[in-house]
Structures
1.
Amino acid sequence: MVIESLIRPRKAEQKPWKLLFIGFFYCSIALLLSLWVFERHADLVTVFLTVLAIVPLFYFTIRYEEKKDMLMSGEKNLLKEHGRAITFLMFLFIGITLAITFWYTILPAPYTNSLFGIQQQTISDINSQISAKATGNAIAHFGIMMRILSNNVKVLLFVLIFALVYGIGAIFILTWNASVIGVAMGNFIKAELGSAAQTFGLSSVSAYLQAASFSIMRYFTHGLLEIAAYFIAGLAGGIISIAIIRGDFRTKQFEKILVDTLDLIVIALAILVFAAFVEVYVTPQLF
């Protein structure tokens, strides 16, 4: 496969920033094919085709990380090695998100409605739920934080279950989240450009760049933490899944694999708690 040969885990760990451009490319091709061949269902097909392109890399990454668990000793060293995989997967996710944001921002409304209809509805539902709970006091903020944390933990559990059952199934939920965040960022950019146009009579390049950078910082402040937690959980579930498929659960090394994956899950949960705090108490103050 051409897609499969573009990059492997070992090379990705050496130059993780390349995954940003690969993610942007994968998603852009998926958008084009979805709009061309499956226009009526382009919003879901885009996610599916993007996932299809990512599957080889994600599969070989999980195998590579499971092999490290079998060969390496020392939990600290293992977590450090897993961190390299999480880093390049995060760059891949950022590339997908930026591709969604870019195309959502520049394409005409009829195309964006076809390509991102379900994502738009999802964002509308989330905003209505949060708005209904927001009253401005500290107790309400804590309630919102717990609601966000509860939803994020559910997503993390879905990622873990998908990874355990389907091996690489977690990548679907992660790509779906990337598409939702990308559309949210695109909405914010369009709103800022509309405000600039009313104020200055035009939307200049500087206004566009300012809106884009502001949107990226607003959503990535807490969004990257959440996605990092999901990737960690997906990696943990995938490692267990691959270990079972390869028959490594029959070996003495399987206990070490279990300890490693439990550590990853605990780290993922801790990151989600911090991300929920940032989303409720820090992001609104900054943006």
2.
Amino acid sequence: MTKPRDEARIELRQWRQFLAVAEELHFGRAAQRIHMTQPPLTQAIAGLEAALGVRLFDRTKRIVQLTPAGSALLAPVRDLLARAQALPAHARAAAAGEVGTLRLAFVSTVGFALLPQWVRAFRDRCPGVRLELIEATGDVQLQALQRGEIDAGFMLHSPGFAPPGLAHLLIAPEPLVLALPEQHPMAAQARLNLKDVLAEPLVIFPRRIVPSLYDAIFGLYHAAGQSPQVAQEAIQMQTIVNLVSAGLGVAWVPDSVRQFQRSGVSYRTIEAPAGLVLPGCETSLVWPPLKVSPALARFVAFLQALDAP
């Protein structure tokens, strides 16, 4: 064969013509099958061979046979055409959020119980959407959202203080409970008064992690006329609970942290005096309002349906 021409100009139509001849091994039947006349089909195959620089068929007046090169192309061309035929349905599925990739960040408290259930249920409902899960604190999530590295994130915040500038869906409100060492004398009491715990050394996350919740906890102490005695800061809730277990202090944690089940730690509900309200917390899914992919829209609708009557 001559030197091949520009292979980039080969079109799907030419591969369909090749497949028809390769499966029929007869130009007349192949032409009829793809609604052509025989001379244009013969010319099209010759043009394809010229573009490739190889013979695809050995042909005489009586017989048409695939060459080794033609035989080698048969399976890949069938696969190519099958995938091309599936593209319109794939595009419609992507537009409907039924296929694609969804990058979700989450704080550790969501990962204790809720997130595994949601992931399993969503994958059953939308198996074509690949979920990429990244554990990250709130400050890291905000940076990742700004850089476009994630699509949405489950974040912890004080009630009513979801990060500004982002769309959000409230997922789970919950109270704060006190984690204290199991060997602490107060651990023997079923319920504790606020005044009994305010003087205890405090283990808490840095303010940059969850500013609204940090401020709410400090506001509680100040409202009661106390200043928090911060013994240690830690980023992850698991680490905070581990430090409590080691006796470094007490910690205000979301009620869901109980499911961490760390030995050496007890959790107690605190009774506030009249006039004081204990802070709670909320978990919300947050995302940039102008960057909603179809897969994210479907996931948000999935979460909303969980609370539907």
